[in-house]
Amino acid sequence: xxxxxxxxxxxxxxxxxxxxxxxxxxxxxxxxxxxxxxxxxxxxxxxxxxxxxxxxxxxxxxxxxxxxxxxxxxxxxxxxxxxxxxxxxxxxxxxxxxxxxxxxxxxxxxxxxxxxxxxxxxxxxxxxxxxxxxxxxxxxxxxxxxxxxxxxxxxxxxxxxxxxxxxxxxxxxxxxxxxxxxxxxxxxxxxxxxxxxxxxxxxxxxxxxxxxxxxxxxxxxxxxxxxxxxxxxxxxxxxxxxxxxxxxxxxxxxxxxxxxxxxxxxxxxxxxxxxxxxxxxxxxxxxxxxxxxxxxxxxxxxxxxxxxxxxxxxxxxxxxxxxxxxxxxxxxxxxxxxxxxxxxxxxxxxxxxxxxxxxxxxxxxxxxxxxxxxxxxxxxxxxxxxxxxxxxxxxxxxxxxxxxxxxxxxxxxxxxxxxxxxxxxxxxxxxxxxxxxxxxxxxxxxxxxxxxxxxxxxxxxxxxxxxxxxxxxxxxxxxxxxxxxxxxxxxxxxxxxxxxxxxxxxxxxxxxxxxxxxxxx
Length: 521
Fold this sequence. Notes:
- This protein is α/β, with parallel strands linked by helices.
- It has 3 domains: 39-216, no CATH class; 264-348; 359-520, von Willebrand factor, type A domain (Rossmann fold).
- The protein has helices spanning 37-47, 58-89, 97-109, 112-125, 129-142, 147-158, 162-171, 180-187, 194-203, 209-212, 215-224, 229-239, 254-262, 266-271, 273-278, 287-297, 299-305, 309-321, 335-348, 380-394, 418-424, 435-443, 465-475, 512-520, and strands at 23-25, 31-34, 174-175, 178-179, 359-364, 398-403, 407-409, 449-454, 481-486, 492-493, 502-506.
- The strands form 3 sheets. A 6-stranded mixed β-sheet has the order 7-6-5-8-9-11.
- Strand 8 (449-454), helix 23 and strand 9 form a beta-alpha-beta unit.
- Helix 20 runs antiparallel to helix 21 (418-424).
- The radius of gyration is 25 Å and the shape is globular.
- The model has no long low-confidence stretch (mean pLDDT 95).
């Protein structure tokens, strides 16, 4: 007798599985499962499309995500806006650009209820004037102005007191072709606070700094007049001026940098480490080095700053290279600062409560994981390995492997530092996301959970991951949980939406390890 069922099982990944109508072709030519619209929104907000991916350029990836998000806005726009507010207020994403773009889409393609909610959300999602200007640049490319938009932009200004407004006016002065003068002339806000109205006049060139009676504005104007260094340092110390308020040609002077460092927030500090090193201020265990290390090692300082852990990793990679990605700037790397960045990362990322479970962590090191992500210096492979080692350090019963078209022994362990992970993340070939499950099945190891960090662009396997997982659940552990950690903003997954023991998360979520830890409980 002929057993025809053999012809419809263990399907190669270049073909859809037999009987599954919910599979789509991914960017690598393999077949995967389409994720939900809400999941795609989250991926885009967290990872963005800047620079594209290995398979898709930035423009195409942006259009694909935008079309999917517009469809979601038209069906449940109010929920989309609520998601934007949640992401912004809880600092979930390393960059705000995607969130601001989606907010502009909501004001353009939403129904009246959605637009009303989006206008009201402007002052919540746009936490700085830089955010506001980026949002307005997106709006300008998508639609015209309306009364609702003017009111929403106006509230960004009128919901701030005079000191808060003055800080915005002198710190974030322009971005994306917009200035405060442009925004205020378009929105025409008015306040019951005379000091606020005078600041509006100052921003639009109708009042002088002295007429505002605001000390910060007056100190800013004094700094812009380029006084001698001693006077400038005094202004910085007395009025807590930030580096954005200082003339550019003064930002490489050691005395100025020392004064700025005292009150420099965490995000600004990690972005400007090269300035201190480039000025020769961190050669050895200098006073500047000690101050930087103390700040980065201060858990309360890092927590209060709200700095995103991915931004700390990106800063570590950039700084430890000793040179910029553009231009010819070089600096001497201080290992004490690198170690302090390592500490800052573990403070910034949400703690993972050890579950004590047996966990297999599979990290995709295939060629498609080597592209830079979201305009940052690091690749998807690097951040995936950082997250894997982070989980490994917390979970004593966890095992880590690498995979491309086969399983590789991971060279990283619990004692591997993050800068070593960033320096030595490996490069592989094709992609078979079923490999970690194949490894578990072949070894007959009863894992409680299998964590796979990947871009989901699978194509090289002889069988789909779901087919191997079904075999594993049948013969080894029927209750095994699978956690898929997405590393790029595409719309596919290796497992279906209806799998009750599947958790999908995004590797750029600040709380990703906490979410994983809770799921494993």
